[in-house]
Design goal:
The complex is a heterodimer.
Chain A (H helix, E strand, L loop, with lengths): L12 H39 L10 H38 L2 H16 L2 H26 L17 H25 L3 H9 L4 H30 L2 H6 L17 H8 L5 H31 L8
Chain B lengths: L4 E10 L2 E11 L4 E5 L6 H7 L10 E9 L2 E2 L7 H7 E4 L11 H6 L11 H14 L3 H4 L12 H14 L4 E5 L7 H14 L4 E5 L3 H7 L2 E7 L6 E8 H6 L4 H7 L5
Parallel strand pairs in B: 2-10, 3-8, 3-9, 6-7, 7-8
Antiparallel strand pairs in B: 1-2, 1-4, 4-5, 9-10
The chains are: A mainly alpha, B alpha/beta.
């Protein structure tokens, strides 16, 4: 009769605890399994491309010279989108969180979130039918007066369906992601620090620079990276807007292509080696996105000591 | 560099709610004045009206005058930013900027408005301010480290250094020791005693012994009941308030019979 009475608890919550921890473990495992199977799929299917005779690859000069132009195109499109959307998104988020009267801020927030709900094919159609013709006029001007800068070299596209237009459409698409995330972070700035700045005689903008932006910095980077993820992978809008072609420096002529659009446009008719090529392109996109995320993590962790987490 | 404060017929409102009613008080330059009273009596609210920090809360407004050496803080042409740069504030919880080093925290107020300051001047100011806050010896070897790595008491003294770095006329302290241990509290109290040689200090405290230890004059605030406005009941020399107060409510409070 030396049973330890402390061993049996008899509490009803015990089984619930086990079920819950099992469920979370299963969910976590599922994510890894999906990610792993996608990676394996990409690798296996892409393999024939890497072992194929370079002359058989599209372009006839091997996979490297096939993929490089569209990698650059992808990066350019995403970079344009981020360059426009990040400052704009931060500005809009600050307006909502710190400047606008409360009611206006709420309405504004809803409208921005609504932008995120618009399907990308609609953005593509809008970019193609509305934005591009308007921008064509601006491109003609750019080509005439700033044509000496390589990225604005003429002759400008008559239709406006260029890399710059695609980048601008992408910027509009990632804007709500960056704005909503930044706004949430800005609202979480400790009151304590905002008051510290104000009590020293900071104006509102100085307070934002002193207390809000440093606090929000990791969040802004994460928001931009999520936006970048969407911009890198966006297919439909780019496929509709961009009149693709060979790589070139000018952003206001037709030409250039992104990986995602290249895959989408060619996938339906592809078979055999061509199919493998496109999947290899997808693998490259996968690696780029992974690299971007790792770099973002590294940037955030570099300043951990000063993050206020301690 | 210290100025006196005269408050005339001040009412403080949060939207329509009258939070503090009809305060008249004269605070001498180069002295320590303590505000005591039960929770919710409006002493912190009143303190914040002395540098217009209450305006941070939407709907907060005042009627009446607060004169800093005769200049009304609430004159329509006065920018609250100017007021706050002359009347510094130390808060209940230490709030150094977590993303800044100790040195940058001290210089934060000085660097506002893009004022340029040479490195040697900045170094001198950092040393002077930290010495003024009795913190220099503890942090002089790690000025580049984050301010958030210090202990609570050190952080609070860093906040005081930050406040005095801009050479304010007045320093307001809103329960500066309530989040600190007794040793750190003692350090802050010693510091307050030194600060009054150069600054006008106004301190809100829940700790009556603290008020008795640090202040020259004490103001007792009270509230008749929930939803009623807080009022200034009695104001006088600290010794008198604690030994022979004129009002019954003051006597009850300082003798610990309520609140």
């Amino acid at each position: 009769m030396s049973t330890n009475s402390l061993t049996s608890t008899g509490r009803a919550g015990d089984s619930g605890d086990k079920i819950f921890s099992g469920a979370t473990l299963a969910a976590g495992g599922l994510i890894l399994a999906v990610l792993f199977s996608v990676a394996v799929f990409l690798l296996v299917q892409a393999l024939p491309t890497f072992s194929a005779d370079p002359a058989e690859i599209t372009g006839g000069a091997g996979f490297g010279s096939y993929i490089l132009p569209i990698v650059i195109g992808t990066v350019i499109a995403a970079a344009i989108a981020l360059l426009i959307a990040t400052p704009l998104g931060i500005g809009v988020a600050l307006f909502i969180s710190h400047y606008a009267p409360r009611r206006l801020a709420q309405i504004f927030g809803y409208v921005i979130d609504l932008l995120a709900a618009i399907p990308s094919v609609v953005y593509g159609a809008w970019g193609y039918a509305v934005l591009a013709p308007q921008l064509a006029i601006a491109y003609a001007w750019l080509a005439e007066y700033l044509g000496w800068i390589p990225i604005f070299e003429g002759p400008a596209s008559q239709t406006g369906r260029t890399m710059l237009t695609a980048g601008i459409v992408l910027a509009v698409m990632v804007l709500p992601i960056i704005t909503s995330l930044s706004r949430e972070i800005f609202l979480q700035t400790p009151n304590l620090h905002e008051e510290a700045a104000l009590a020293m005689g900071a104006t509102r903008w100085e307070m934002i620079r002193m207390a809000v932006l440093p606090f929000a910095r990791p969040g802004i980077i994460s928001a931009a990276m999520l936006g970048l993820g969407r911009a890198l992978g966006e297919t439909m809008a780019v496929a509709l807007v961009l009149s693709g072609g060979a790589l070139q420096a000018s952003l206001i002529q037709s030409g250039n292509q992104t990986i995602a659009a290249e895959i989408a446009l060619n996938f339906p008719e592809a078979f055999g080696l061509r199919l493998s090529e496109l999947i290899a392109a997808g693998l490259v996109l996968f690696v780029i996105t992974l690299a971007v995320n790792i770099i973002a993590r590294w940037i955030i962790s570099r300043h951990k000591e000063f993050s206020g987490a301690n | 560099m210290s100025k006196r404060i005269d408050v005339k017929d001040l009412n403080v409102y949060y939207s329509k709610f009258l939070a503090v009613e009809d305060v008249n008080i004269n605070i001498e330059a180069r002295s320590v004045t303590a505000f005591i009273g039960p929770s919710g009596c409006g002493k912190s609210t009143f303190l914040r009206t002395l540098n217009r920090m209450h305006e941070v809360i939407p709907g907060a407004r005042v009627e009446g005058e607060v004169l800093l050496d005769g200049d009304n803080l609430y004159d329509a042409a006065v920018d609250p930013v100017t007021v706050r740069s002359q009347i510094g504030m130390v808060f209940q919880r230490p709030n150094p900027f977590p993303t800044m080093s100790i040195r940058d925290n001290v210089l934060a107020g000085v660097k506002l408005n893009n004022r340029r300051i040479s490195k040697s001047d900045a170094d001198a100011l950092v040393e002077k301010s930290l010495q003024g806050a009795n913190l220099w010896n503890e942090v002089k070897d790690r000025l580049g480290r984050p301010g958030s790595g210090l202990s609570g008491g050190q952080q609070q003294r860093l906040c005081i250094a930050r406040a005095i770095a801009v050479s304010p006329q007045v320093i307001l302290m809103d329960e500066p020791c309530s989040a600190l241990d007794p040793i750190s509290t003692l350090a802050i109290e010693d510091l307050i005693n030194e600060l009054k040689n150069e600054y006008t200090v106004v301190i809100v405290t829940h700790n009556m012994q603290q008020a008795a230890r640090v202040s020259d004059k004490t103001a007792f605030f009270n509230i008749a009941g929930t939803g009623k406005p807080g009022k200034l009941i009695e104001y006088g020399e600290t010794a008198a308030i604690f030994s022979k107060p004129a009002e019954k409510a003051t006597e009850d409070y300082v003798s610990g019979r309520f609140g």
